[in-house]
Every structure is written in C-alpha cells, then in structure tokens.
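Postdoc handover notes: sequence design on the structure in folder B. Input tokens:
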C-alpha cells in the first residue's frame, strides 16, 4: 500500500494513537460495524486508520522523521463484502515555483532549485524558451554521480528574453518500472527575476484506493491483516475531522476560520482575499508530455560542485 501524504501533524495524532470511538448514527446499518480506529505498529513506525461515522476516513503514518496524512471517503461495497476507501487530495503544483523581483539583476533571471524536495523527483529535467512552444530538447537537471544533496542549487543567470517560459519535469515509469515518457509542467515568467523550484512528491503519487474487510473486529486491507478495532471518544473524533478531514474536504472554510482567528472581532468571512493577493507562487500553465529522446545534453547542475543560495528562503 502506498499511502504518502505530507501534511503537518498536530497534537491530535498523539491522542489518536492512545485513545480507546464513540460514534453517531450517520452511516448505514451495514457500515456501522466498521466505524472506529485501527492501528498497526512496530518499533520504528505506527500507522493509524480512523473510519468516521460520516463515511470519511483519516490515514496517518508516523515513522521516524516521516509524518504522513491522507483523507478520503469510504463506503460499503455494493457487490462484494467489505468496504472501499478512496483518497481525496487537494490539487497542488507538481513542481511548485516561487518568483520574486530582486534589485540589481538587470535583464537576467536566476533559477534556484530546492535540493531536499527535488532529490525525490525521478530523473528531473529542465528547459526554457522565448515562446510558449516547448523546447526541442531538455537537459537533465542534476548529474547522478554524487549521492549527497545540498539544500539549494542555482543556475548561472539567463537573459530574460530567452526564458519567458520554463519547463520542469521528470521521467515517468510504466507499471513495470521502466522509463516511459517525460512529464512536464510549463510556467510563464512575467515580473520575477529570481525563481525557486521544488518538487511535491505527494502529487506524483497515485491516489490511494483500497478495499477492506472486518473479520471478528480485525480489519484486513487488500487482503492483509491491518489491526484490531478500538474506540475513540467524541473529542478525538472531532480532532480528526478538524485536523485531517476538513483541510482536505473543506479547505476554504478552514482557511477562513484560521484568518478569522487572527483577526478577532472583524467580519473577516466577508473579506475578499483576491484583492490583496501577493502570493509569490507561480501558477502552472499546463502539463504536457514528451518522448524520452527529448532529453539531451549535459546536466544543468554538477552536484559535485555544490552551490547553495538562500536568496529565496521564505
């Protein structure tokens, strides 16, 4: 099972692990037995699944420095026994890019790359063009020799008229793990002359779809034993909703609630954030695909020659 969602954990996770689950009567009679908490653990990791009484679920993993969350819907299977679980995910850029204007750069543009996140991208590639037509060829972003990664890498400055559009992508593999094509994200560069690009490996991971069966209060996921059902009190259920379910299912309401908490006494629900949008995040124009033979030339960055830069640290 690939359940890989990087979200910040809140204090609810600890309670989630130790609390024994009361529930309301929102599910069907056949689904009622599934509502509860299930966990699977070892010395180094702990995985928890909570099936809520409104047919939503939260899947969490804690393994060393890795904290993962996934949320979605669950329902009883119409033809087979058991239930099915389908993840819901907020769509975010595969390669998030921040842009800002730095004085003194003239007509030059500087590209910075986040080494930590891009270390998870399979064979990343990069290219740019003066028009929105994809470049005829792409170059590997990094050399493969060195196994260590720096926090930040940067390219030599590029003339702005040559880089009105840039393309960042990675090599996709088929179901057998064999490289099949290049997946690219296209951006248009307008006002900024300094760009920071990263990689969101969550967006590159297939959505979680699983089947589960409850046998003698023990949950089996995709045929494998997961954990025994326990109970969680109402306050822990609400924590799960607020910190795992709502950020995915109702992100706008969560955002407004957080802003209102920062502006006590104001009628902030009626405020229009779009009028004060200073977000440096670039919006991708489109996603496209190219053949593997489009990758040509030497890597842009020789990782043996680490070149860190903090000019775009947020």
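Designed sequence:
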């Amino acid at each position: 099972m690939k359940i890989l969602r990087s979200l910040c954990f809140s204090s609810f996770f600890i309670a989630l692990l130790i609390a024994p689950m009361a529930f309301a009567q929102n599910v069907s009679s056949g689904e009622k037995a599934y509502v509860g908490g299930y966990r699977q653990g070892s010395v180094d990791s702990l995985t928890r699944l909570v099936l809520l009484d409104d047919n939503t679920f939260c899947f969490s993993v804690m393994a060393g420095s890795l904290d993962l969350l996934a949320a979605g819907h669950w329902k009883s299977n119409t033809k087979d026994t058991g239930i099915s679980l389908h993840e819901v995910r907020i769509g975010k850029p595969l390669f998030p890019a921040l842009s800002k204007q730095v004085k003194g750069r003239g007509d030059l543009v500087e590209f910075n790359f986040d080494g930590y996140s891009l270390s998870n991208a399979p064979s990343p590639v990069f290219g740019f063009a003066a028009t929105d037509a994809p470049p005829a060829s792409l170059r590997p972003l990094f050399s493969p020799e060195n196994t260590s990664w720096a926090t930040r890498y940067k390219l030599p400055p590029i003339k702005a008229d040559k880089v009105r559009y840039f393309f960042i992508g990675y090599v996709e593999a088929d179901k057998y793990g064999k490289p099949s094509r290049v997946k690219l994200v296209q951006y248009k560069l307008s006002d900024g002359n300094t760009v920071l690009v990263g990689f969101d490996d969550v967006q590159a991971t297939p959505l979680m779809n699983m089947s589960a069966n409850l046998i003698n209060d023990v949950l089996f996921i995709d045929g494998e034993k997961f954990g025994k059902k326990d109970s969680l009190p109402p306050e822990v259920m609400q924590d799960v909703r607020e910190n795992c379910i709502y950020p995915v299912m109702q992100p706008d309401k969560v955002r407004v609630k957080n802003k209102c908490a920062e502006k006590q006494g104001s009628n902030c629900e009626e405020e229009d954030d779009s009028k004060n949008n200073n977000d440096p995040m670039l919006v991708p124009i489109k996603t496209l695909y190219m053949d593997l033979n489009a990758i040509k030339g030497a890597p842009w960055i020789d990782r043996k020659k680490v070149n860190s830069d903090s000019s775009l640290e947020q």
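Context for whoever picks this up: The mean pLDDT is 83. Don't rerun without checking with the PI first.
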